[in-house]
Specification:
Number of strands of chain B: 12
Strand content of chain A: 15-25%
Number of helices of chain B: 13
Helix content of chain B: 25-40%
CATH class of the largest domain in chain A: Alpha Beta
Oligomer: heterodimer
Structural class of chain B: alpha/beta
CATH topology of the largest domain in chain A: Pyruvate-ferredoxin Oxidoreductase, domain 3
Structural class of chain A: alpha/beta
Distance between the termini of chain A: 34 Å
Distance between the termini of chain B: 56 Å
Shape of chain A: globular
Bound molecules: thiamine diphosphate, iron/sulfur cluster, magnesium ion
Radius of gyration of chain A: 27 Å
CATH architecture of one domain in chain B: 3-Layer(aba) Sandwich
CATH topology of one domain in chain B: Rossmann fold
Number of domains of chain A: 4
Strand content of chain B: 15-25%
Number of strands of chain A: 23
CATH architecture of the largest domain in chain A: 3-Layer(aba) Sandwich
Largest sheet of chain B: 8 strands, mixed
Radius of gyration of chain B: 23 Å
CATH class of one domain in chain B: Alpha Beta
């Protein structure tokens, strides 16, 4: 825990600047729910927060097994934070498997809260423990709190008409209650959530409430914990806030874009982790005229979106890497017919099915180049969960203004991670209105706007504009099928120039830290938090290190080269094997140095600091 | 077609003129002719190809629907058939191989006011695009899908297709294909298409009538047109479609009428147990009353499924409408849900949604 102040707050309260808790248990133990409830409570209290859910791909791996462990990490703070924390200060382990898979991340001296009831021989076997860690001394370096959570919880539910199995399902709320006491949180938000959620099942509601209160009371009345901890609200910029995940912000961004463009939203998608939640959320916005289409596959999803775009709608499609692979041919079609479309890729780990719930930034080159021929598409990538809102709108802006498909790259970390988000004023958002072609006298299907090089959007139903488009190469301006060699060269060049020209219409690359110096750390996407935290600490140590983060990856902002050339070394941390660094090297002939860790997990701040220090040492 | 006067679903920012009603009166008012549907593009099929006739019959029936040209869209996949939209003076979209139904589904969902035709081939629809045929049909997407069946891959110069007969020798199957062909209409019926029909490229009047029926149907239409590719599979259907033999070898279906065929109108189809059989009226005491009566509107598609599997030489080849049933269309169901949502909660309020869940204020 970051700052422990002198205990003038009373003998049993300590004030901390930042705390990171990890809840870990079996995937049937409700750890995601526990984590989410703690997050809401911390957010409403006014802490800055950052979260990292970590769940298995299997819906129900065998109970008690190592692959079945589900975790949720939350960092909450009284100051500005950018990551869910490198290491937990507190680990709540609901069973041996959860202990085994997570305890390695807990630093020496960290608090370990354990449900001792779960440490039966059978569970120890399932977690492949040769001896019981509670008794063999292997946990010596931690502050261990063994609590018979299952027993205590069941006792608190006595008299309720429930099976013992049902009772056991509420033990996560006992753990949550204990955490609420330990960190001085109110139980009210969770109590009202329970009432809401289980309004039709009063016994279940009562059980969960009792479990929560029993955990809280346990902290208060037992001698186990001498102290509880206070983390004061953070000083965030004035405004109204809510907690938001990247997927939620993405869906809201698209909804807002539809309103700003004055066009109905059409969203075609085929379920895939971690993109499905965007589909779920948008399908609830029917009163906004949003049409969601769960297609038979990813190809149909993008095909339908292209059809809707042809009809004049604001059309989107979303998937993750494997589905983007299926969409590639149709993305090429969208490039060719020059219709607005946003293709969302919520990246996940690994080639093929890989590790579907884990984190990676491996699809950058796929969306950039994964199509036949030269088939340029603008590409944007949000850096934080909240920023997904803004970048979703930006993707739509570019698509509509330049009549082009646009790739929007999120990832599993952004998608499921959350942070406090300042709700924008709708009046401050940009207008995305673009007109349709209407004038039959002047209409030519491939006549381009001289500034943007966009072709006109001529939607069916407009008299006099009947025309034919398609995947075959078309003659410049008139749009008839053409095999003319010079025309093809011209059209290839025009498509490329249209996308390249966007560089003049996007914000410049901003630098945090010194505007020249020894080292620039260049990132994109969800590595933002770790890089920014690392650079803050390096700067505090007096090191001339700066951070720049790309939100536009095609084209790059116009000042990118100037920025890069202001530093002796460029370090590019990525959760892939070096994709942005390849693009930077190819584009600018600059020796971008990759720092690549592909473990299905986000970077830790210390990893980046160490790598930066290593380069700085070489510099000397 | 869904009520073509409904504006629902038209993009709010788009200037979409109210489409006129689909009616013969309207056709008279709009008064277009075949020529109005001929585009300025030079037709580039091989001379003698069956596609010419299909194009001509399509252009001929278009004025009858009473739609102005701008409200009609032709979407195709890839193949020789895929060229057709270029030749229609309507809106047109030549998409990618097998995927035309997906574009049509999205377009129709976004723009229920349009009349949408899907032009496809046997490879395009049943091989690479098979999945999309199934799903556009089961959803009852209000489209008219016309599949040009020449039992061959024409555009890629003569490989076996999913409808090529077993053992057929082609460029890609010099020793004969080892794949069993599929029956397109059986597939369409199994996929719950609400309108299923067959016609022949050279039977011009019958083809016009069939296209006309499809165009007037509300929901997913699958029309198989037996088409001759005179370059790579010449005469594929000749055995029963030629003028001299067609009456004896084809069964023209008519709703409510007994299944009679033959030059002398003395042959018919009767059910023997669970199997159809060809009988002769007047022989062995068979009368017209013994014959099956066609019912394209039957609730369950047993009869249509049986017809879809009858083929030359065991049976006369059925042509006409096998099935035409009413079912809510995909776009209508989508629109209804949106309307219901607005009725329940009022039109969506963005600011309210942005403030959804718990919020807190920092001063
Ligand atoms: C993705 C993809 N794969 C393959 C092709 C090549 N291709 C074009 S048309 C075609 C077959 C068309 O056969 P069919 O649908 O029967 O149409 P026909 O030419 O006979 O009218 C193939 C394989 C392609 N264009 N796209
Ligand atoms: S190859 Fe066959 S189907 Fe294609 S245009 Fe020529 S004749 Fe017609
Ligand atoms: Mg064919």
């Amino acid at each position: 825990m970051t700052t422990i102040q002198p205990a003038e707050l009373g003998p049993d309260v300590q004030e901390l600047e930042r705390v990171t808790i990890r809840f870990a248990g079996d995937s049937g133990d409700g750890m995601q729910l526990t984590g989410t409830q703690f997050t809401r409570t911390a957010a409403v209290f006014g802490n800055d927060i950052s979260t990292l859910p970590d769940f298995p791909a299997e819906i129900r791996a065998p109970a008690g097994s190592l692959p079945g462990v589900s975790g949720f990490q939350i960092s909450f703070s009284s100051s500005d934070i950018h990551t869910p924390g490198d290491q937990p200060d507190v680990l709540v382990a609901m069973n041996p498997a959860a202990l085994k898979t997570n305890v390695g991340d807990l630093p020496a001296g960290g608090a370990l809260i354990i449900n001792s009831d779960a440490f039966t021989q059978s569970n120890l076997n399932k977690a492949a423990y040769a001896s019981n860690p509670l008794t063999d001394g292997s946990l010596r370096s931690y502050r261990v709190f063994e609590i018979p959570i299952s027993t205590l919880n069941t006792r608190s539910l006595e008299g309720l008409e429930m099976t013992s199995k049902q009772m056991d399902l509420t033990k996560n709320f006992f753990a949550l209650g204990l955490m609420f006491w330990l960190y001085e949180r109110s139980m009210d938000p969770t109590l009202s959530w329970i009432d809401d959620k289980f309004s039709a099942r009063p016994v279940i509601a009562e059980a969960n409430k009792r479990a929560l209160k029993a955990g809280y009371a346990y902290g208060e009345t037992t001698e186990a914990f001498h102290t509880h901890y206070r983390v004061k609200p953070a000083r965030l910029a004035p405004g109204t806030y809510r907690n938001i995940t990247g997927n939620e912000a993405t869906a809201l961004g698209f909804l807002a874009a539809s309103k700003l463009a004055g066009r109905d939203l059409f969203y075609g998608s085929y379920p895939i982790t971690p993109a499905s939640d965007i589909l779920h959320q948008l399908s609830g916005y029917k009163a906004f005229g949003v049409k969601t289409f769960q297609a038979e596959d990813e190809i149909a999803a993008i095909g339908a979106a292209i059809g809707a775009s042809y009809g004049g709608a604001l059309a989107l499609t979303a998937s993750s890497g494997p589905g983007i692979a299926l969409k590639s041919e149709a993305m090429g079609l969208a490039v060719m017919v020059e219709l607005p479309l946003v293709v969302v890729d919520v990246q996940r780990a690994g080639p093929s099915t890989g590790m579907p719930t884990k984190i990676e930034q491996g699809d950058l080159l796929q969306v950039m180049y994964g199509r036949n021929s030269d088939s340029p598409m603008p590409l944007v990538a949000p850096a934080t969960p909240g920023e997904c809102f803004e970048l979703a709108i930006e993707a739509c802006r570019l698509a509509l203004k330049y009549m082009t498909p646009v790739a929007y790259l999120s990832d599993a970390f952004l998608a499921t991670g959350s942070e406090p988000w300042r709700i924008p004023d709708i009046g401050d958002l940009p207008s995305l209105v673009v007109g349709n072609a209407t004038d039959a006298a002047t209409f030519r299907p491939y006549q381009r706007d001289p500034d943007t090089l966009a072709r006109p959007w001529a939607i069916p139903g407009t008299p006099g504009l009947e025309h034919r488009i398609g995947g075959l190469e078309k003659a410049d301006v008139i749009g008839n099928v053409s095999y003319d060699p010079d025309n093809h060269h011209r059209m290839m060049t025009l498509r490329a120039a249209k996308v390249a020209g966007i560089a003049d219409d996007i914000p410049p690359l901003e630098v945090f830290g010194p505007d020249r110096g020894d080292l620039l750390i260049l990132g994109w996407g969800s590595t933002y938090g770790a890089i920014r935290s690392a650079v803050e600490r390096l700067n505090a140590d007096g090191k001339a290190v700066a951070h720049a983060h790309l939100r536009h990856l095609n084209p790059f902002p116009a000042n990118t080269e100037t920025v890069l050339r202001s530093y002796r070394r460029i370090l590019v941390p990525e959760v892939n094997l070096g994709q942005l660094s390849l693009l930077i090297r190819a584009r600018y002939l600059i020796d971008a140095i990759g720092y690549n860790r592909v473990r299905g997990k986000p970077f830790r701040i210390v990893e980046i600091i160490e790598e930066a220090d290593r380069l700085l040492a070489e510099n000397r | 077609m869904t009520d073509p006067t409904s504006q629902a679903g038209a993009p709010s920012g788009a200037a979409t003129p109210a489409p006129p009603a689909l009616s013969p009166e309207n056709a008279a008012v709009i008064a277009l002719s075949r020529k109005d549907f001929v585009s300025d593009q030079e037709v580039r099929w091989c001379p003698g190809c069956g596609d010419y006739s299909i194009l001509a019959q399509t252009q001929k029936v278009m004025p009858d629907f009473g739609y102005p040209r701008e409200n009609i869209v032709f979407i195709s996949g890839i193949g020789c058939s895929g060229r057709l939209p270029y030749y229609m003076n309507t809106y047109g979209f030549h998409s990618i191989h097998g995927r035309a139904p997906t574009l049509a589904t999205g377009l129709k969902a976004a723009r229920p006011d349009l009349m949408v035709w899907v032009i496809t081939g046997d490879g395009d629809a049943l091989s690479i695009g098979g999945n999309h045929v199934l799903h556009s049909m089961r959803r009852n997407v209000d489209i008219n899908m016309v599949m040009f069946n020449n039992r061959i891959y024409g555009l890629t110069k003569g490989q076996a297709s999913p409808t090529s007969e077993f053992g057929k020798r082609t460029k890609s199957t010099p020793a004969g294909t080892v794949d069993t062909p599929i029956m397109p209409l059986t597939i369409a019926l199994a996929a719950e298409a609400s309108f299923v029909a067959r016609s022949v490229d050279t039977h011009t009047e019958h083809l016009q009538g069939t296209l006309e029926r499809a165009g007037r149907h509300h929901g997913s239409c699958f029309v198989e047109v037996l088409q001759n590719c005179n370059i790579f599979n010449d005469g594929a259907w000749r055995d029963f479609t030629d003028r001299e033999v067609r009456e004896d070898r084809m069964l023209v279906l008519e709703h409510g009428k007994p299944m009679i065929f033959g030059k002398d109108r003395n042959k018919g189809i009767r059910l023997n147990g669970l199997r159809p059989e060809v009988v002769t009226i007047g022989k062995n005491g068979i009368t017209e009353a013994d014959l099956l009566v066609h019912d394209e509107q039957a609730e369950e598609p047993y009869l249509a499924l049986m017809l879809s599997r009858m083929f030359w030489p065991e049976f006369p080849v059925p042509v006409g409408v096998l099935r035409a049933v009413a079912r809510p269309t995909h776009d209508q169901l989508i629109t209804d849900q949106l309307t219901a949502a607005v009725a329940r909660t009022g039109a969506g309020d963005l600011d309210q949604i942005l403030h959804g869940g718990e919020t807190w204020t920092v001063d």
